[in-house]
Structure to design on (113 residues):
């Protein structure tokens, strides 16, 4: 992975001295939303690089699939339960908030708080 005879530990030390920080993120899935479809990457390797105050994410490998967006947004049960738990409301209210925010979990939570 690293060029020449530099071991990974030395490379990390050099990058740290240059102000570059790399963190591995333990992600199960990455979803990229486009206007007409979503790209789903399952079991990816995700790395976050912080350099000069900027954060960059690198996504490597995993199983990739795409889904075309339907006219009606499909809300995951897991999302409904999480919104309901975070806001102490019923699952029915959580579903309604998620539908009104087009499945945006953070926006649904903010709407209910």
């Amino acid at each position: 992975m690293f060029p020449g005879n530099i071991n990974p530990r030395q490379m990390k030390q050099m990058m740290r001295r240059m102000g570059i920080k790399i963190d591995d993120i333990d992600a199960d899935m990455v979803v990229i939303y486009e206007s007409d479809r979503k790209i789903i990457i399952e079991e990816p390797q995700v790395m976050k690089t912080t350099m000069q105050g900027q954060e960059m994410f690198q996504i490597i490998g995993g199983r990739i699939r795409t889904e075309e967006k339907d006219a009606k947004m499909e809300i995951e049960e897991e999302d409904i339960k999480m919104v309901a738990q975070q806001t102490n409301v019923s699952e029915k209210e959580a579903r309604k908030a998620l539908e009104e925010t087009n499945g945006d979990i953070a926006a649904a939570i903010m709407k209910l708080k």
